[in-house]
Specification:
With 319 residues, this protein is α/β, with parallel strands linked by helices. The chain folds into two domains: 202 residues, 3-Layer(aba) Sandwich (Rossmann fold), CATH 3.40.50.150; 82 residues, Putative methyltransferase TM0872, insert domain (DNA polymerase, domain 1), CATH 1.10.150.170. Helix content is 43%, strand content 13%. It has a seven-stranded mixed beta sheet with strand order 3-2-1-4-5-7-6, sandwiched between helices. It starts with a helix and ends with a strand. The structure holds S-adenosylmethionine. S-adenosylmethionine binds next to helix 3 and strand 2.
């Protein structure tokens, strides 16, 4: 028998964005007729479509990227009043009027659409202005502007902590030197600079492009990705109905740690820094995943992006 995930993997177009952990996400969200769901990271609408197809549901989808808003128009045409899109950063969930919701989903990071469009500046392949903003219309600095002004400690945070790049010292020093010569304007210049900092042995042994980690770190800093998650997740939890489900898919250990600690706290378990006696902790949710769910070998073979995906899910308490 072909399951939902199998049909999705085989029917998915070669281009575009394949939703990760499709079957697992739908199972944890428990989409049922009449259910109202919030997809905080619409992207290509892969997960939204699964929710809309699983039952007679409604979905409110958010994304900060104007191009995701364009893709959402097709969903508006196909699903009518079952689907609504708002262009928003999910850190502003507390400002939306809709809800409460039976299920809320976060699928962090960038979409394949964003990565594949060279001119958005997310990719070390090709040559483009260094932008990397998921919302290029925001008043936040582009990657080029950010790299020109970031302090040494901000650069270290981006390359070492967000990027988990082993050669962070060399990369940070090289960026500081290059920006003094005003030579950091394009993805190609940045990628070549990073490559020059990675010892040849590591470069050849690496399964991923040697600039992947530093690019990821700079993207996380440019989009303030850690802070918005810290703000968005608690706001989303408050928007869940009693018994509502929250699913969080992360791709980076820092993202997963935030979800893990908040989930523990809501489940009334000790979280780092919480030294209260156990009976003082309120249990507001139960965990549906003790350890994060990860993609099967089959999914990884069909969708490389799923390799590092971790899904955590909880059910909010009844009262
Ligand atoms: C990994 S993709 C989501 C893919 C989607 N689940 C699918 O199956 O097509 C992440 C999307 O979330 C958006 N995004 C990331 N951070 C966001 C934020 N803080 N607020 C709103 N949208 C965000 C990105 O622009 C991107 O389109």
């Amino acid at each position: 028998m072909i399951g939902l995930a199998d049909s999705l993997i085989s029917l998915a177009p070669m281009k575009g964005h394949k939703p990760v952990l499709p079957e697992e996400t739908i199972e944890f969200l428990a989409a049922k007729n009449g259910g109202y769901f919030l997809d905080c990271t619409f992207g290509g609408g892969g997960h939204t479509e699964l929710i809309l197809k699983a039952a007679d549901t409604k979905v409110l989808a958010l994304d900060q990227d104007p191009e995701a808003g364009e893709r959402a128009k097709e969903f508006e045409r196909a699903y009518g009043d079952r689907f609504q899109f708002q262009r928003k950063n999910f850190s502003d969930i507390d400002q939306i009027e809709e809800g409460p919701f039976d299920g809320i989903l976060f699928d962090f990071g960038v979409s394949s659409y964003q990565l594949d469009q060279t001119e958005r500046g997310f990719s070390f392949r090709g040559d483009a202005p260094l932008d990397m903003r998921m919302n290029p219309e925001s008043d936040r600095p582009s990657a080029e502007e950010w790299l020109a002004k970031a302090s040494r400690s901000e650069l270290i945070e981006a390359i070492k902590d967000f990027g988990e790049e082993k050669n962070w010292r060399r990369v940070v020093d090289a960026i500081i030197e290059a920006r003094a010569q005003e030579s950091l304007h394009t993805t190609k210049a940045l990628s070549e600079l990073i490559l020059s900092c990675i010892p040849a042995k590591q470069r050849y042994a690496s399964k991923i492009h040697p600039a992947t980690r530093a690019f990821q770190g700079i993207r996380i800093a440019v989009n303030n990705e850690i802070e918005v998650i810290e703000k968005g997740l608690p706001a989303a939890f408050e928007r869940l109905k009693p018994n509502g489900r929250l699913c969080v898919i992360s791709f980076h250990s820092l993202e997963d740690r935030i979800a893990k600690n908040l989930f523990r706290q809501w489940a009334g378990r000790p979280a780092p820094g919480d030294n209260r006696p156990q009976d003082m902790r309120q249990r507001r949710a139960s965990l549906l995943t003790r350890r994060p769910t990860q993609a099967s070998d089959r999914e990884i073979a069909a969708n490389k992006r799923s390799r590092s995906a971790k899904l955590r899910a909880l059910r909010k308490a009844e009262t």
